[in-house]
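Example 3.2
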Amino acid sequence: MPKCSKHQLNLLRISLQKAPGLHFHSVSRYFPTFLPFFYFSSFALSPNPTPRSEPEKDEDDELSVSGKIFKSGPQLGSYKLGDATFYSLIENYASSGEFRLIEHVLDRMKREGRVLVERSFILIFKACGKAHLPGEAVKFFDRMVKEFHCKQTVKSFNSVLNVIIQEGDFSDALKFYLRVFGANKMSFQPNVLTYNLIIKVLCKLGEIDRAVETFREMALKNCNPDVFTYSTLMNGLCKERRIDEAVFLLDELQTEGCLPNPVTFNVLIDALCKNGDLSRAAKLVDNMFLKGCVPNEVTYNTLIHGLCLKGKLDKALSLLDKMVSSKCVPNEVTYGTIINGLVKQGRAEDGAHILVSMEERGHKANQYIYSSLISGLFKEGKSEDAVRVWKEMMEKGCKPNVVVYGAFIDGLCREGKPDEAEEILYEMVSKGCLPNAFAYSSLMKGFFKKGDSQKAILVWKEMMSQDARHNEVCCSVLLNGLCEDGRVREALTVWKHMLSEGIKPDVVAYSSMIKGLCDAGSVDQGLKLFYEMQCQEPKSQPDVITYNILFKALCREGNLIRAVDLLNSMLDRGCDPDSTTCNIFLGTLRDRNDPCQDGRLFLDELVVRLLKRERKLAALRIVEDMLVRCLPPEASTWFRVIQKTCKPKKIQETIDEFCKSLYGQ
């Protein structure tokens, strides 16, 4: 066996360390000690290496340094290539995503009749996943048997299926599954991982019934579902609001002796909280403790979020204390949820106290927490506190994002300080933060509120020069401001500009323009625009505000019959009247003979018609409005309201309770 000196080995180490993508230790792992010596002495130490006469393209040009070493070794008589050598090359090339070189190795192995193993293909599939090439993974899977006579098993199939799913190609994943197992000619059967993946695919595609069928099929194939199978299917059922079926699966899971984990419970708790069923969610938490499954921060965060959605902030705060006592550390999501809930209830000051508590426990507030607090404090008229929170945020090194800037600009405009808000917007732009539609529209509203419509128009022009994506929202604000200011001609110019730019007006833009035309005495033009509005997409359909604008305009002209016809159309289109609607019609009827009777009968008939259309909540709101105005409904109408909105047993219980309290029996 030829030997090399220490000097030669040192030269070899230095040379190989300089080679890109190759290290001495990685080469020495695959070669006997004499191979580097022959390779190095033949090429690197040659005093006069013979250059090629012409730069020809051959296979060596395609290979990496490690590939050239593998190829050169046998030519020098140092060793014979074995299958493990090729496997190592495939592993190296797969880890670096060198698909061309993988093809070179596979081609040579095929020519030499080498044996390929499934493990090598699984490495290639994973490389395809990293490179976002699910189609290539499928092609390699199909070539395993046809070209390389490599036996496929469920491992290689699952690997390819997972690559397709990770890429989000759920339809392709289902097609691949059906193609492989549809003919029942495979030498292998799906295992629990296969079922877990395909059930996930079916749930993502909204094919929940098929997912349930596939789940039930597992027992026929002697494949026992695990906790991940149950959790995946339960999650799919919950997203389709089939919560009872998901709860039944939890019971089945425990009956089968499969221990649920926190993820399993969290799926159900989240669904119940979103559905407003907090009592059942709380019972599930108790069930978790009974099963020895400790709730984690996701469990608590989900419950706290559900309580905040229901407005039960005191219970949410109590749960926060319980969370801490259970040694489950609250995170930014926990605090952010509670602070946001307090702000929505008009308790922004309490939210500020929670922020202090949060920071004392070592947590830093993010931009969204600050934006919620700043916005809430401004809305509650506590502008000084809002400015203080803004300054504290800056001092603590929390860089404001577009959401925080927008909240601060909007708050200053609410306080009648659009000039200060404009300075903040310029600061925002100078720091490379592009204002969004909310920031621009808030500033425009601020100037319109101040009576400076010209400045609002300048803000709109500035927005136009920055980013055209904001036009739709801001044009609506501009139209409303101009129409409120009586500048209908300019508003029409903006309207035509919107249409010429391909901007589709929303319900706010249409309503603003209709109001401007009606206030200017052009009711017919307003109606024409209204009828055009009805032919637009859903976001541009008229709402109760649009109808009320037209009711007011028609009644002002004394055209009550036309207003009533429009009210009928409103009911037919599924739009419910509100208190403003009642005010408009009652105000008109007040000038007619016998106003009290006319008004009461009009609203009474409106309630009946809503009940006939099964619009119970809208009918109850009108009844409530009638009672406030001391215009009680007819006895027959009362009967219909009770019949439609109350359950018979509850009615009798209520009557009995009333009689008991009235007669003391």
